[in-house]
Amino acid sequence: MGFFQHKDAYKALQFPEFRAYVTGNTLFTIALLIQEVVLAYEIYKITHNPLALGLIGLAEAVPFISLVLFGGHFADNRDKKKIMQVTLSLIIASSVFLLYSSTQLQSADQDFHIYSIYAVIFIIGLSKGFFSPAASSLNPFLVPKEVFANAATWNSSFWQLGSILGPGVAGFLYAYAGLSGSLITVISLLLGVMVCIFQIENRPVPVKTVQHESIWHSLREGIAYVFKTKIILYSISLDLFSVLFGGVIAILPIFAEDILKVGAEGLGILRAAPSVGAVVTMVTLVYFPPLKHAWRNLILAIAGFGVATLIFGVSTNFWISVVALFFTGAFDSISVVIRQTVLRFYTPDEMRGRVSSVNGVFVSTSNEMGAFESGVAAKFFGTVPSVLLGAGVTLVLVSLVALTSKELFDLKVDQKIAED
């Protein structure tokens, strides 16, 4: 059964702070995904331009990537809880502004409405540059070391649950309550996140952290650690390139509106399908962790993601497309659990913020810059050819990595967890 038995499958949920953390993380995910889906659909309905969808990813990625390394430094040297509270307040304030903009100014100036959306997305990216490394580096301190692999699975499961509910609700909210009603829901959920954060105690800065070193030395140290630790570098690189080239989430409004012709409700189902697959897989992984032969399982999962994306690209049937997206989420969830566990057990406590921030750069590059890449590729190559090309690139890259990382196939991640 791996390194924990069935009776311990719910052990992480016995810790109140971890329950508050995953509840807040779930609400945060639901809120931002509702906002992401309705804003993307709003922009595409106005512009009918794939590049406009790609610019959403760019608007979030530029500030996030620019600041997340600094966010990691501050997470290692400052109060993580306070960082989360301040940046969450900024996200809430920007959502309130967008609500005002959409209700008071949209009819007067449609261009201003679109620019307001991009500006708010930019502010969210900026805020997440500090919020994400603080939250990620706080997570390991909420449960004992021996429970963390179980906690990582539950954390991913709750995140995926949010990823189901957010897009699924978003399509219907937009269809029946409009943009304003959707934004009111988002703001309410974000206030719930703040309540959850208040239930977590402050954590002291690890004693090994050097308080007076320069910020540039601190950042170089975190980056150097990632690049010298092959299992971390290779695992986050695989995720980066597979989602960067093989991800299709950003251009789903095009499939919903123009190819499958299923409207906003269908878009919600398409956006939720990968997360449904992920949650089903995550529940299975609670009982059967994928950490024995971890690197082999990671390679196979990324390859499966590429194949499922290829099937989605050639499908013209709504339900076949939904099933294909289901499997992209199922395979990606295996990758998430392995990657999070590797980061937890191969990173020293005093470097968690910086390593999390480097991981954040990779994740944001794959997700938000991948969204930009998807929009650009769809604009210049066509929507379906861009998906097929991306899936092919993913399969080629994972094959090359498998051939050049043979020593990682012998790495015993499950044994390291048992020893720690």
Break the fold down into its secondary structure elements and pairings.
Elements: H1 16-47, H2 50-77, H3 80-105, H4 110-138, H5 148-198, H6 215-228, H7 230-246, H8 252-259, H9 263-287, H10 294-314, H11 318-345, H12 352-381, H13 383-404, H14 413-419
Helix pairs in contact: 1-2, 1-5, 2-4, 2-12, 3-4, 3-5, 4-12, 5-9, 5-11, 7-10, 7-11, 7-12, 7-13, 8-9, 9-11, 10-11, 10-13, 12-13
Main location: membrane
Subcellular location: Cell membrane
InterPro entries: MFS_dom (IPR020846), MFS_trans_sf (IPR036259), TM_effector (IPR010290)
Structure description:
The protein has 420 residues and is mostly helical. The protein has helices at 16-47, 50-77, 80-105, 110-138, 148-198, 215-228, 230-246, 252-259, 263-287, 294-314, 318-345, 352-381, 383-404, 413-419. Its main location: membrane.
Based on secondary structure, the structural category is: mainly alpha
Number of helices: 14
Query: How large a portion of the residues is in β-strands, by DSSP E?
Result: under 5%
- Assign an overall shape: globular
Helix content class? over 70%
Note poorly predicted spans: 1-5
**Rounded to an integer, what's the Rg over CA atoms?**
20 Å
The main β sheet shows up as: none
- Sketch the topology as an H/E string, one letter per element: HHHHHHHHHHHHHH
* Separation of the first and last Cα atoms: 18 Å
Count of extended strands: 0
Subcellular location: Cell membrane
Membrane topology: Multi-pass membrane protein
Protein name: MFS transporter
Main location: membrane
